[in-house]
Design goal:
The complex is a heterodimer of chains A (about 240) and B (about 280). Chain A has 9 helices and 10 strands. With about 240 residues, chain A is an alpha/beta fold. Chain B is elongated. Classes of the chains: A alpha/beta (about 240), B mainly alpha (about 280).
Chain lengths: ~240, ~280
C-alpha cells in the first residue's frame, strides 16, 4: 500500500507538487488525472524514489521512501513515461537483468522472467532485440520490467500510450488482474489522459492541478453523482483556473 | 555490493554488441602494431648507427628493455588517451538518453554499486587491451633463432640480448594503471552529461590537462614568489600523470607512483558518485 504524506516539490520559487497526501490500499487501482504539467509525473517520481521531495514523505508497503529507501524501492514497480529499455538487449536478457538489480533471488529469476513475459504477452518475441520491436511491444516490455520482481506497489505513468485498442484492452485486463484482491492484490497508481480508461479500471480517482490535489473520490461515488468524468474534469480544472 | 557484477556484466555485453568495442579493438591493435614496429625500427637504427661510428661502448649499454620495450610502452599512452574516452563515453550518458536512468535510480541499488559496476566494465576492457598489447613485447622473448630477432639485430651480437621479463611486466603494469586512471576520468566525464560526444571530449580535455600539468610546472608558469613557487610546481608535478607513468613504463616500481594511481582512481570515482547522485538534488 501507499501512504503519501504532504509531498511537496519546489524548484526555486516554482512549486511542482504542493502538499499532496493520499493513501492507496492493497488491491486498489487509483487513477491519477490532471492536465499536462499538473505534477503527476513529479509525484510518481517522488514515490518511486527517483526524486527526493522538498517536504513530506511517503511509505511504500510500510517502508519510508527516505529513511528506508532500498526496501521501499524493492516494493515498487515503476513504468516511467518513456519505458526504460536498452535497445540492444533481447527481451529475456533485459528482464533477467532487471530481476537481478531488483533483488529477485537467483533461484526464482527464471520463473519470474517467464511469468512477466507470459503475463505481458511477450512470449512470441522474448528472444527478439528490443530495438527491433514495435512501440506496442516496447510498452509491454516496459510493463513487464515493472512487474518482474512482483512488487506490492505498481506505479505506471501512462501505461497504455501508443498501444492499439486490442493491446489497450489486454493491458487493462492485466492491470485488473494484478490488482485482483483474490490474487496478488497489488496497489496500483496509474496516470492517464484517457478518461474512459479510468472509468474502466480505476476504483478511485485523484485529480491533480497545478501541483495540488483537487479531487480524491471513489469511482462509485462519482458514478452515483451522475456526472461523466469528462464533464467533471473540465468543471474542476476550469473552476481552478478561474480561481487562479 | 552484490549488484556490481550484474551492472558490469550488462555494460560489457552491450559494449560487445555495439560497433564501438570492435572499432576500438581494431584501432588499438593496428596502432599498437604500428608503434611496436616504429620502436623496433628505432632500435635497429640505433644499433646500426653506433656500429658505423664505432661506438662499441654505447652498443654494450643498449638492451631490449630500455631501448625498445620501454619506449614502446611509453608511447602507447597517446593511444589510450584517445581510445579510453571512446569506451567510457557511453557509461552514464547512454543511460540518460535511453531513459534507463529512471530504472537504475528506482532500483534497490546503492550509488557505489552503480558507479563501481560501470567502472569495472571499463576496467575489464582496459585489461583486455593490455593483454592484447602484451603480445608484441612477448615476441622478443621467443628464442634467439626466430626471424623476429634476426631482423632486429642484423647479425650483431648484443652484450645483453635477452629482455628482462619482470621489467617488461612492470612497464605493462604502469600502462594498465594509466588505463585504469583514464577509465575513471572517462567514467566521470560520462556522468556529467547526457551527450556521448561531450563526454568524449571532456574526458580527452581532462586527460590532456592531467598529462600537461608537469609541463606547466617545468615551464615555470607556476613560479611566482620564491617560497611558494616550488611548492606549487611540485604539487602540479605530483598531480600530473606523466612522471609517475614514465617511471613505471621504464620498469621502476615505486609504491609512491602506485599510490598516485590509486588516489586518482579513487578521487574520480568519488566525483562520479557525486555527479550521479546530483540528479536527486535538482
Amino acid at each position: 500500500m501507499i501512504e503519501a504524506d504532504g509531498i511537496t516539490k519546489r524548484y526555486g520559487d516554482f512549486v511542482a507538487v504542493d502538499d499532496v497526501s493520499f493513501t492507496a490500499e492493497a488491491g486498489e487501482v487509483v487513477g491519477f488525472l490532471g492536465p499536462n504539467g499538473a505534477g503527476k509525473t513529479t509525484t510518481m517520481r517522488i514515490l518511486t524514489g527517483f526524486l527526493p521531495a522538498t517536504d513530506g514523505t511517503a511509505r511504500i508497503a510500510g517502508h519510508d521512501i527516505f529513511s528506508d529507501p532500498l526496501a521501499a524501492r524493492r516494493a515498487v514497480g515503476y513504468l516511467p513515461e518513456t519505458p526504460p529499455l536498452y535497445p540492444e538487449m533481447d527481451v529475456t536478457g533485459y528482464l533477467t537483468y532487471v530481476a537481478k538489480i531488483k533483488d529477485v533471488p537467483r533461484g526464482q529469476r527464471k520463473a519470474a522472467v517467464e511469468s512477466a513475459t507470459e503475463r505481458c504477452g511477450l512470449a512470441d518475441v522474448h528472444r527478439r532485440v528490443i530495438g527491433s520491436l514495435s512501440k506496442g511491444y516496447r510498452q509491454r516490455v516496459g510493463i513487464a520490467q515493472a512487474i518482474v520482481h512482483d512488487p506490492k506497489v505498481l506505479i505506471l505513468d501512462e501505461p497504455t500510450v501508443g498501444l492499439d485498442p486490442i493491446q489497450i484492452r489486454e493491458i487493462r485486463h492485466l492491470i485488473a488482474d494484478l490488482a485482483d484482491p483474490e490474487k496478488a492484490a497489488h496497489t496500483i497508481v496509474l496516470s492517464t489522459h484517457i478518461l474512459a480508461e479510468v472509468e474502466a479500471i480505476c476504483r478511485r480517482v485523484i485529480m491533480i492541478h497545478n501541483g495540488k490535489k483537487v479531487l480524491d473520490q471513489s469511482m462509485a461515488e462519482l458514478t452515483e453523482a451522475g456526472e461523466s468524468l469528462e464533464d467533471m474534469f473540465a468543471r474542476i480544472i476550469l473552476r481552478e483556473e478561474e480561481a487562479a | 555490493m552484490r549488484h556490481v557484477g550484474a551492472i558490469a556484466g550488462r555494460e560489457l555485453r552491450s559494449l560487445f554488441v555495439s560497433p564501438v568495442a570492435y572499432a576500438v579493438l581494431t584501432l588499438f591493435s593496428v596502432l599498437a602494431g604500428f608503434f611496436f614496429l616504429l620502436s623496433v625500427q628505432g632500435f635497429s637504427e640505433a644499433i646500426n648507427y653506433y656500429q658505423q661510428i664505432g661506438q662499441f661502448e654505447a652498443l654494450r649499454g643498449i638492451n631490449l628493455n630500455n631501448q625498445l620495450i620501454g619506449p614502446f610502452i611509453q608511447v602507447m599512452w597517446i593511444v589510450f588517451l584517445f581510445l579510453i574516452p571512446g569506451i567510457t563515453m557511453g557509461l552514464f550518458a547512454m543511460e540518460k538518453t535511453n531513459g534507463t536512468e529512471e530504472l537504475l535510480m528506482t532500483s534497490p541499488l546503492t550509488m557505489w554499486e552503480l558507479v563501481l559496476g560501470k567502472y569495472l566494465a571499463a576496467a575489464a576492457f582496459v585489461t583486455l587491451l593490455i593483454l592484447m598489447m602484451g603480445f608484441f613485447p612477448s615476441l622478443l622473448f621467443l628464442d634467439g633463432d626466430t626471424p623476429v630477432l634476426g631482423l632486429l639485430f642484423g647479425g650483431f651480437d648484443l652484450a645483453d640480448p635477452d629482455p628482462e621479463g619482470l621489467q617488461t611486466l612492470a612497464g605493462l603494469l604502469g600502462l594498465w594503471l594509466l588505463g585504469l586512471t583514464y577509465a575513471a576520468v572517462g567514467t566521470f566525464a560520462s556522468s556529467v552529461t547526457r551527450n556521448q560526444l561531450v563526454a568524449f571530449f571532456l574526458a580527452l580535455a581532462l586527460l590532456l590537462v592531467l598529462w600537461l600539468l608537469s609541463v606547466v610546472a617545468d615551464l615555470g608558469v607556476a613560479e611566482g614568489a620564491a617560497g611558494t613557487a616550488t611548492g606549487l610546481a611540485s604539487v602540479l608535478t605530483w598531480l600530473s600523470t606523466s612522471d609517475h607513468f614514465d617511471k613505471l613504463a621504464r620498469g621502476l616500481i615505486d609504491t609512491r607512483d602506485l599510490a598516485y594511481f590509486g588516489f586518482m582512481i579513487g578521487a574520480f570515482l568519488i566525483l562520479t558518485k557525486t555527479a550521479v547522485e546530483s540528479v536527486r538534488w535538482r
